[in-house]
Amino acid sequence: MDFRQLRQFVVLAAELNYRKAAERLHMTQPPLSLAIKRLEEELGARLFERDRQGVRLTVAGGVFLREAQRLLDGAQAAAQATRDADQGRVGSLRVCAVPSAALDLLPRLLPYFAKRFPSVRLRLSSGSSVSILAELQRGELDVALLVPPAAGVPGIEWMPLPRQRLLLAVPCGHALARRQALRLADIGAETLVALAHSDSPGFAGEIMALCQREGFTPRALQESSHALITLPLIAAGLGVAIVPQALARIAVENVVFVALQDAAGQPLTYALALAMPAAGLNPAARWFTQCAYECLPAQP
After folding, report:
1. Shortest CA distance to 120 belongs to which of 98, 91, 149, 79?
2. Which of 53, 108, 219, 260 is least enclosed by beta carbons within 10 angstroms?
3. Where is the HTH lysR-type domain (predicted)?
4. In total, how many domains does the chain have?
């Protein structure tokens, strides 16, 4: 018994007419009659009664019809699920993001993706750029949002994301807290709480390059291993910090945020990118990348 025989039986049970059933099955009547006869012999039960009044299902045929239809529906569902998995429309997707992207970009990207691919289960995590890259290279992540390093990373594909604005986080009582906007040169004498280069060399490198363009080297006497850990250090009055704008969404007592601008009065920004293994086996990652391209604006 195979699925072809089951389909022949189900079509005949629906038509109760050998000629019409054969037409639907794109075959002639004799092979259909022979196939049904062999099926009955294999089952050891009559499935149809055939007389001058026509063709009727037997009691055994009615029972077999329900089971045959269930098997055919199951086979069709299995085939569709397999195609969907191969195309990345079902399954799971492991996504990791640095805190700034998790606070700002993911809240826009995830609903867009989930609406288009509701059967893909998202597994979310957060980390530093260095740890995320290591997980991507080990195949432990499918896609990530992070600050890209200055040099390329073997085996990783990149898609630039909108550049994100930078703010200065200062204690409430600090003289700079009253300013509407600042240039980096205005903080040359301040103690800078910096994100550790070992955790995010891309971000630390961008900050250093911006400061050097303004003609000074920052006094980074304090370091934090995580962007979110920076804010309590600022609240404690241990310095000021150049942070992603997304951190302003977090209310921390005794911390205010001031806009940072270049010499032309334009906002200072830093790079974010979407990364995935070049040999990634999860097709859903490609859909996620496409959704990021579609829903995230071209400018911060």
Report:
1. 91
2. 53
3. 1-58
4. 3
> What's the token pair of residue 7?
């389909």
Distance CA 282, CA 269 (A): 32
Classify residue 300: in a domain, yes or no: no
Close Cβ partners of 260 (under 8 Å, ≥ 6 residues apart): 165, 166, 167, 168, 181, 182, 183, 184, 242, 267, 268
Q: What's the pTM?
A: 0.69
Of 222, 29, 227, residue with least CA distance to 129: 227
Tens digits of pLDDT across the chain (300 residues)? 788 888 888 888 888 888 898 899 899 989 988 988 998 889 889 988 888 778 888 888 888 888 888 888 887 777 766 776 666 566 889 999 998 899 999 999 999 999 999 989 999 999 888 899 999 999 899 999 999 987 778 889 999 999 999 999 999 989 999 999 999 888 888 888 887 777 788 888 888 888 888 887 777 666 666 677 888 889 999 889 999 999 998 888 999 999 999 888 899 999 999 999 988 778 889 889 999 999 987 544
Please check whether residues 169 and 250 belong to one and the same domain.
yes
Residue 213 lies in a domain: yes
Dist. CA 148–CA 88, nearest whole Å: 26
Backbone angle region of 16, left / alpha / beta, with phi > 0 → left and psi within -120 to 50 → alpha: left
Alpha-carbon distance of 273 to 167, in angstroms, equals 19
